[in-house]
Structure formats: structure tokens, C-alpha cells
Design goal:
By secondary structure, the chain is of the alpha+beta class. Helix content is about 50%, strand content about 20%. The strands form 2 sheets. A 5-stranded mixed beta sheet has the order 2-4-5-7-6. It is globular and about 45 Å long.
Length: about 200
């Protein structure tokens, strides 16, 4: 049993170090200067740490989707009064899905506070998800409103590539829409890729 636990711990540490290495490389590669790179890296590592904290609370088995989303968004909800609204059934999701979603939502939150709805005092974000029992898929949508007018970016940032890559890690499809009224992120993913087997 001890050998099994040590083997699992070794595997998790290697995965975490690989993630940290990728975050560091990309954060500094895309940065205009050292300070900006450090800030981007710090935010991403804090998001990874919060996801790990949540998983430790449930012994790395599975965690609540709602708690994963609130853990990722709470640090960005500093204006008083909830500016993030959740709408969907609570699900138990795998540790891999917790990490991927926590990192995705950190990027979305960072972007919305800099450029999107939450850069304005009147802006808010709705996060809604549904389960399609027939097709066995989870469909999640992040919709911003009440912020400044949105225009598509002139280049694809590391954050955008990361969001798309994290969705692909879950065998999902990611759609990003830069609607004038607000940015929209959609994830359409097979249930078997995100839901814990005992959920």
C-alpha cells in the first residue's frame, strides 16, 4: 500500500512540475517585460494552488463543480456583491477536470477584470451549464455583460491558446465569441471526460 501511495505521489509531483514548467515558459515568453511575466505566472500558480487545495479537501478523489468554479472566481469578486452568477446542477468531477477548469477560469477571470465585463463597475458574468443525458455531454457557457464594447483581439494570446488546450485535454470543444455586448466562452465536453465514476 505504501509503495502504491508513493508511486501515485511521484506521478502527481511530476505532472505538477511539468504544468509549472509550461506555465513559467509561456508566461515569460508572451510577456512584454519581466514584471508582466512574473505577474502572469503568479496568478496562474495561485490558481493551480487553489485547485490543489480543493482536491486535498476531498482526498484527490473528486470535487464539486460548483465549488471548483466558486474557488476560481472568488478572488476576482472584490467589488462587493456577487458579480459572478452560477446556474447549473452540481456534479462531482474528476481531479483532472478540477485542474483544467480552475486554470481555464483563472484565465477567463484575469481577462474579464482587465478588458471585459468586470473592468466596469456595472459588469457581471453568468456561468451556466447543463447536462445532456441523451448525448452524455456537459455544456458550459461563460457570458459577460454590462462591460465595455468587445472587439476580437488582433492576436491569439497565450491565455487564449491555454484555454483552448485545456478544453482539448478534456476531449472537449471550445468556442470563443467576441460579441459586442460581451465575451462568451463555451465548453462542450463528454461527461465521461469530466464526471467522477462514482458521481
Amino acid at each position: 500500500m505504501q509503495k502504491l501511495i508513493l508511486g501515485e505521489l511521484h506521478h502527481r509531483i511530476k505532472n505538477t512540475l511539468a504544468t509549472v514548467s509550461a506555465i513559467a515558459a509561456q508566461s515569460f515568453r508572451a510577456a512584454i517585460n519581466l514584471e508582466q511575466g512574473q505577474k502572469a505566472m503568479d496568478g496562474r500558480l495561485l490558481a493551480l494552488g487553489r485547485a490543489h487545495d480543493l482536491l486535498i479537501q476531498v482526498s484527490w478523489s473528486n470535487a464539486s463543480l460548483t465549488h471548483t468554479l466558486s474557488g476560481a472566481t472568488d478572488p476576482f469578486d472584490s467589488q462587493g456583491g456577487r458579480r459572478f452568477h452560477f446556474n447549473g446542477p452540481d456534479l462531482r468531477i474528476t481531479s483532472g477536470a478540477v485542474i483544467a477548469l480552475a486554470m481555464t477560469f483563472n484565465e477567463l477571470c484575469t481577462n474579464t477584470t482587465k478588458f471585459g465585463a468586470l473592468s466596469s463597475s456595472s459588469g457581471h458574468v453568468e456561468i451556466a451549464w447543463t447536462v445532456d443525458e441523451i448525448e452524455q455531454r456537459l455544456r458550459l457557457k461563460w457570458s459577460e455583460s454590462g462591460g465595455p464594447m468587445v472587439a476580437p483581439p488582433t492576436r491569439r494570446s497565450y491565455g487564449t491558446r491555454m484555454i483552448e488546450s485545456l478544453g482539448q485535454q478534456l476531449n472537449g470543444q471550445v468556442r470563443l465569441a467576441y460579441e459586442p455586448s460581451g465575451f462568451v466562452y463555451q465548453l462542450d465536453v463528454p461527461l465521461k471526460s469530466v464526471m467522477a465514476s462514482n458521481a
